[in-house]
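User: Here's a structure from my thesis project, written as structure tokens. My advisor, Dr. K., wants to see whether a designed sequence matches the one we expressed. Can you design one independently, without my sequence as a hint?
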């Protein structure tokens, strides 16, 4: 019964204007939240934007907060498999029963807004309203909210974040956000609110300029990765990496992060700084957070971050180091260089723009260095596909062009045509269906492994912690979009969320 009711509600939500069809206005969501009693004001918010790394950073931030004993809400988008993934309480997606309850509770107000506004509520606006209401009903101690797109006009921006996190910015969604990094950064900077702490991941100079300009305008405190906080050291470890991180309130050493890639280390540093800033903003350390984040005399490159009162005070003001280590070891990011099969190793990744593909390719090369990579690629037609292919090519021995379940996906034959000049015709294969593409890639991997007759050495050979026994010398990477990663995850694991 509940499954059929959930399916019916999903159909109703999906029938609305899709989230990639943007009508830049906060009027509809403001009317909805007002009718709901402004639930987004019932709890403090950590708000997260950026181009890549938003979901990973949001998940890491939520994990740290939950490890500190706080009841958490987490809103992320898009989802991999189940729409319920977008709304989590205490680290778990809301149940099917609870999802139905939330929708039924706000359904009358959806119809009122639809009648009053010239444009009906969209798919994304409905889910934002549901998340805000769910977190107020729980109730949560803090909500970690990831934007859908941009910042200023994103529907989540009716919430005022005590901490605003901006992960690295690059060009994506240019049709809506702007053709330059400066324009995109100016839009994303809109989540930085008066009196907030702005935690900024590594940024291009043009992006950093816009973000700091916004922070000055609204009187926000700025904490910058690589200056006020950041990764001190990192080394490869079984199933991930081991880190030392300088936070805003102290240094944290010997942290095991079970995720691959330098970019995930940066995301983790941003998450840690966000939780430190949030902790300071809520307690007696508020002034010291502002002083350390805004008034540091030196950055990571120049030595220690300036901390008033000396190192002993900063250590006592920092988060509990064992708690942080425990939280880091718990961190996960499904669909981000996630191993879903062994022998051959199959990895899924949600990279969907050039910067994301570059980061994924670097991480893949670093963490699975000896392996030959067979890439299965399905991308949206509205993306910069040529540059995505350019970033993928150095890391992949061959590519299988295919499609995913989205109507926006580029046809496999068209993708193959674009790939051939980049990879060469002998390295490009085509399969119209994703399941056929995965089967083809696995067979190519098996052939490559048989040709070299050697096990994959290093990080993943015979690795009991990863569960890869007798791993072969070839890795299959399935990538190109969140939808591609989600479709592949469902096909290979059967996990429907």
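Assistant: Designed independently from the structure alone:
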């Amino acid at each position: 019964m509940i499954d059929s009711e959930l399916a019916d509600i999903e159909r109703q939500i999906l029938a609305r204007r899709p989230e990639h069809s943007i009508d830049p206005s906060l009027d509809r969501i403001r009317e909805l939240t007002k009718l709901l009693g402004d639930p987004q004001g019932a709890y403090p918010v950590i708000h997260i934007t950026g181009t890549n790394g938003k979901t990973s950073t949001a998940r890491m931030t939520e994990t740290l907060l939950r490890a500190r004993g706080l009841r958490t809400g987490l809103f992320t988008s898009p989802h991999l498999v189940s729409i319920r993934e977008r709304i989590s309480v205490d680290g778990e997606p809301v149940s099917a029963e609870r999802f139905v309850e939330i929708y039924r509770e706000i359904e009358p107000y959806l119809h009122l807004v639809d009648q009053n506004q010239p444009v009906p509520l969209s798919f994304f606006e409905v889910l934002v309203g549901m998340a805000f209401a769910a977190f107020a009903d729980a109730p949560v101690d803090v909500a970690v909210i990831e934007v859908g797109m941009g910042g200023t006009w994103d529907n989540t921006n009716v919430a005022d974040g005590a901490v605003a996190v901006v992960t690295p910015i690059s060009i994506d969604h240019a049709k809506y956000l702007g053709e330059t990094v400066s324009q995109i950064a100016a839009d994303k900077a809109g989540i930085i609110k008066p009196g907030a702490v702005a935690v900024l991941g590594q940024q291009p100079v043009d992006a950093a300029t816009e973000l700091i300009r916004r922070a000055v305008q609204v009187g926000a405190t700025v904490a910058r990765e690589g200056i006020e906080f950041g990764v001190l050291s990192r080394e490869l470890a079984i199933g991930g990496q081991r880190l030392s991180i300088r936070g805003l309130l102290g240094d944290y050493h010997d942290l095991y992060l079970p995720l691959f890639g330098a970019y995930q280390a940066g995301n983790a540093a941003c998450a840690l700084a966000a939780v430190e800033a949030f902790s300071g903003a809520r307690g007696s350390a508020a002034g010291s957070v502002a002083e350390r984040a805004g008034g540091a005399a030196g950055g990571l490159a120049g030595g220690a971050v300036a901390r008033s009162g000396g190192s002993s005070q900063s250590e006592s003001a920092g988060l509990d180091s064992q708690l942080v280590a425990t939280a880091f070891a718990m961190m996960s990011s499904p669909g981000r260089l996630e191993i879903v099969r062994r022998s051959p190793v199959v990895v899924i990744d949600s990279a969907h723009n050039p910067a994301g593909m570059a980061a994924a390719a670097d991480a893949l090369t670093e963490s699975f260095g000896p392996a030959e990579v067979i890439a299965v690629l399905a991308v949206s037609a509205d993306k910069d596909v040529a540059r995505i292919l350019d970033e993928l090519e150095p890391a992949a021995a061959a590519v299988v062009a295919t499609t995913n379940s989205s109507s926006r996906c580029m046809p496999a034959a068209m993708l193959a045509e674009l790939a051939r000049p980049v990879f060469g015709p002998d390295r490009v294969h085509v399969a119209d269906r994703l399941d056929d593409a995965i089967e083809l890639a696995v067979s190519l991997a098996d052939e490559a492994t048989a040709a070299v007759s050697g096990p994959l050495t290093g990080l993943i050979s015979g690795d009991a912690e990863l569960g890869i026994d007798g791993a072969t010398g070839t890795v299959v990477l399935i990538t190109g979009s969140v939808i591609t990663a989600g479709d592949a995850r469902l096909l290979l694991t059967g996990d429907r969320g």
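When you compare it with your expressed construct, this may help: Residues 2-330 form a domain with the UDP-N-acetylmuramoyl-L-alanine:D-glutamate ligase fold (CATH 3.40.1190.10).
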